[in-house]
Amino acid sequence: MDQTVANAAAAHPVRPHPERHSELPGDELAALTPAGRMVMTTDGTVTAILAHAVGERIVLGGTEQHLLAVAAPAAGHLRLPVGAPVELRTVQLVGERTGTRYVRAETVVSTAALPPAFREDLARGAETIGRLLRAHRLETYREVVDVQVAEAEGTCRRTYTVSAGGVPVLLITEHFEATCRFLPVGLPAQARRGAARAATGPA
Question: How far apart are CA 162 and CA 157, in angstroms?
């Protein structure tokens, strides 16, 4: 374990938490396509799954980063005091071939809890967080804390934490555009839910 992560783990011991309801499709998730439900509930990196869903490699289409003081509820998710310094990173995830925007992702970064080398690569803004985590071989755990589906707009979003060494280091909110096609086209909402339940089988 990296010494920075180890020190953070000692300062912020792991606290037990209840199991999250997002592991099983609820009414909102049932409206999504199978690919949409997989992306919204996965505890792995989303870029590889999204690439298969849309048929092209996912790359960064723009990055903005700035420092700020963390506010609630982000502070609670990252186990930081309100007002602690963090970095906000906003990126656009687009298709490498078509340039289509699929996701806008906002990440609150607990910079003090991350290894210096990872922080430097993150600051360059040249790669997705999932690929950076793999490149630096950080052992991480993702926990989905919120899922929202806007059926009328054909969009959805999820928020999750990424922990390293038992310490939350990232709070990520991913906004999935209608271009992801995670909601079946041409079906009313109730019919979409019925089709999704039929595809997953009886409870």
Answer: 16
Asked whether the predicted pLDDT for residue 196 surpasses 80, the reply is no
pLDDT at 201 over 90: no
Q: Would the pLDDT of 14 be above 80?
A: no
Q: Which of 56, 61, 62, 80 is nearest to 70 (CA)?
A: 80
Question: Span 153-178, mean pLDDT?
Answer: 93
- Joined together, the tokens standing for residue 140 give 């991480």
Q: How far apart are CA 112 and CA 162, in angstroms?
A: 14
The side-by-side arrangement of strands in the sheet containing 155-164 is 58-69, 85-95, 101-109, 167-176, 155-164, 140-150
8 Å CB contact between 21 and 28: no
Question: What is the Cα–Cα distance from 87 to 89, expressed in whole angstroms?
Answer: 6
Judged by average pLDDT, the poorest of 119-133, 134-148, 188-202 is 188-202
Hunting for tokens 């019925």 — which residue is that?
194
Provide the residue type at 18 as one letter.
P
Phi, psi of 184 (to 5 degrees): -55, 135
Q: In 3D, which of 155, 163, 157, 202 has the Cα closest to residue 181?
A: 155
